[in-house]
Amino acid sequence: MSTIWNKLDSGLSSIYLNYLQVKEKGRASVARMHPAVAAGRRVNVSLQYAGDLAQIEALGFQTIWNTGNGGATGSVDLADLERIAAHPGVLKLSFGKKPKLHLDKSIPNISADQVWSRSGETFSGDTGAGVIVGIIDTGVDIFHPYLRKAGPPQETRILRIWDPGLEPESGDTQPDPSLLSAPGPTYGVEYDRAKIMAALGGLGNFRHRDCAGHGTHVASTAAGNGRDKYQYIGVAPEADLIIVKALYLKKYPQMGGTDIPFDQLFRDAVSYILNVAKNVFSNRPVVINCSFGSDTGPHDGFTDEEDFLTNKFAGATGQVLVQSAGNSAGSQQHARIEFPSGGGSVDIPVELIDDRTNRIEYNRCEAEDETEAQSIKLYYPSGGTEISVKLQLPFGEGDPISGPSFGGTPVTSTFGSAQQYSLQHSAENQTLRWTSRGTVNRNLFEVEITPNASKLHRAGTYTLTVSAPDALTVHLWCEQSDYGFFIGTPSSAIAHVEDTHLVGDNGGADNIITVAAYDAETATLPIARFSSRGPLVDYNSGLAQPAKPDIAAPGVHVDAAKSKDSQPRRKKKYVVGMSGTSMSAPHVTGTVALMLQKNPALTISQVMSTLKGNVQPVTIPIDPTTADEAGAGRLDAKLAFDHTP
Fold first, then answer.
1. Hey, which end of the chain has fewer CB within 10 Å, N or C?
2. CA gap 406, 389 in Å, rounded
3. pLDDT in tens, 599-613
4. Nearest Cα to 5, choosing from 424, 447, 442?
5. Residue 360 neighbours by CB distance under 10 Å
6. CA–CA gap between residue 302 and residue 304 (Å, rounded)
């Protein structure tokens, strides 16, 4: 029987649990309050529903955007959440989780510099001119010379910047609502080329910055021209750019005083770039780069964002999206548990490690400790055998904690020095509303460990005892960045810690290009240790899934533009080296820009088949790779360009 917990995604469940704790114990007795709870009782959520939306609105759901296809984004009072979720027409309520970034020699390695040539400051050949490269990331440094036109006058190649994290001030403009994904209000601040040029001349109220530096590096890899010494030239050095800042926003965009769900912001970001290219710039070809994602989703390609992308780019002409595969390999983030007939039990130790000596970051343009809650998620097929899970806290603190049965009330409490744990067990079903392919049914058991009020985690080994009464495959993923969970050695051989099924959201979408990483600075061109491997997980949905990743590109020690606003304590310089599939994706993005210059009417199927059918030849001593590691193989921009129809 469905309960309200089966209808809330893990992000909203976490908020609601926090709300219930504050309601029961009072603000002073809860060590950490979620910002949505601290700011008041209202929260913006994404709704999937069947039937009459007006009935759900009558219970307290206030529609902001009607996204169509049985979906809406709106505001709810947490006091009304339970009765709204109990309505039979409510299929799912989601808050989501903000994604993480997927953090010379690479350009000649992919032969991009054989598609164009340079004499002094003048480029010739096919350089991506006339094509728009869209970057959804942490913003951009407009002052960096790599993103201006070569030679005088010093003109920018950035056509538009949309920064949803800024609130309008005098003289600011906002995007036309028609450029976003659904009818409704607009938000943020938009800078057109005239305002960007004015800012370069020291005029106007220009407040956009890239303090994380990631977006500037990605933009430069795809489309930088290297102007000064021309040592670090990107793949498509004369392409124009549209930038959307979606990560590390100065202030997260809100409606009615609460955060907009990230899935709404993501759809708006994609739609904004496509609509500006089409409606403002006369249907120019465009390729969008997304170098971010989530490493703890279901990994099956059927999240709402992935379904949106699968639908959005199906049959698209002159419109392509490139997504990084993720950086989850090589760090013990995934375990596959194969319970035999008759079931069994296994202990899985998961160590929470946080050995950072400097916890202060500058990603939002001010010094702050960004330590967040960390989670462990166990996904398995629904409709049959159900698992049970117990949690043993570090250092043998207390007795093992039994998690809730499927659909039961979450278990939560405080431990250590006011850290918190919560255990939830519910359905994580996904109605494929954008593609109308039906519903994917899966179950989720989630463990979330929250730091205390001083943002300190209780490091140590958290042991999960996972049991099932019959044959069942369970996948466990744990959350990491530069701190987080690492899976130890299980107590039984039925659990396998392995670098498979790691391609993160949104990399499982069909009709987009998902990119793995290899090391172009090593003679054998090995696949990067961190590069997330496939395949996607099948929870017995019966639906076709694409093979992911699609292709591999350079992603180790890639040198590209450094934002002047990033890392203020470090020496100022134009270039910085970064590693990650974040860096490999823009190599493919730039290559697609070259292909679109040659043929602006390319379909996604033509782009995909051309890229995958014209990879670098595998010769000794290049190591053999599998499709789960590198897709079709290593990117060859020249071959792909030459074979573009």
1. N
2. 10
3. 999 999 999 999 999
4. 424
5. 11
6. 6
Contact 572, 129 (CB under 8 A): no
pTM: 0.92
Instruction: Give the pLDDT of residue 1.
Output: 33
Cβ contacts of residue 561 below 8 Å, gap of 6+?
A: 141, 144, 146, 147, 216, 217, 219, 220, 224, 232, 574, 575, 576
Q: Which residues contact 10 (CB under 8 A, 6 or more apart)?
A: 97, 375, 377, 424, 428, 444, 446, 448
pLDDT at residue 258 in the model: 86
Segment holding 606, helix H or strand E: helix 604-613
What gap in Å lies between CA 221 and CA 217, rounded to an integer? 6
DSSP 103-114: ---HHHHTTGGG
Q: Are 527 and 625 in contact (CB under 8 A)?
A: yes
Which residues of the chain fall below pLDDT 70? 1-2, 31, 39-40, 97-104, 152, 568-572, 618-624
What type of residue is 279?
A: N
Rounded distance, CA 69 to CA 57, Å?
17
Tokens of 572: 């100022």
Q: Give dist(CA 568, CA 360) in Å, integer.
A: 12
Per-residue pLDDT, 98: 66
DSSP-assigned letter for residue 156: B
Tokens of 328: 């989850």
Output the CA torsion 514→520→526→530 (10° steps). Answer: -50
Compute the distance between CA of residue 363 and CA of residue 482 in angstroms, rounded to an integer.
14
pLDDT in tens, 517-538: 999 988 889 999 999 999 999 9
**Cross-strand bridge partners of residue 27:** none
Neighbours of 619 (CB within 10 A): 6
Burial 23-48 (b: 16+ CB within 10 A, else e): eeeeeeebebbbebbeeebbbbbbbb
Tell me the residue length of the chain.
645
Q: Which helix (H) or strand (E) holds 38?
A: helix 35-38
Q: Concatenated DSSP letters for 348-368? A: EEEEEE---S--EE-TTSS-E
Q: Which ranges of 187-298 would DSSP assign to H, the alpha helix?
A: 193-200, 214-223, 262-275
Q: Return all residues near 253 (Cβ < 8 A) that are at least 6 apart.
A: 164, 165, 187, 188, 259, 260, 265
Find where tokens 């989601």 sit.
94
Give me the sign of the Cα torsion angle 231, 237, 241, 247.
negative
- φ, ψ of residue 460 to 5 degrees: the values are 140, -175
Look at residue 622 in the predicted model and tell me its pLDDT: 57
> What CA–CA distance (Å, rounded) separates 536 from 276?
33
Q: E-strand spans in 142-249?
A: 158-163, 189-192, 240-245
Residue 545 tokens, joined? 């899934």
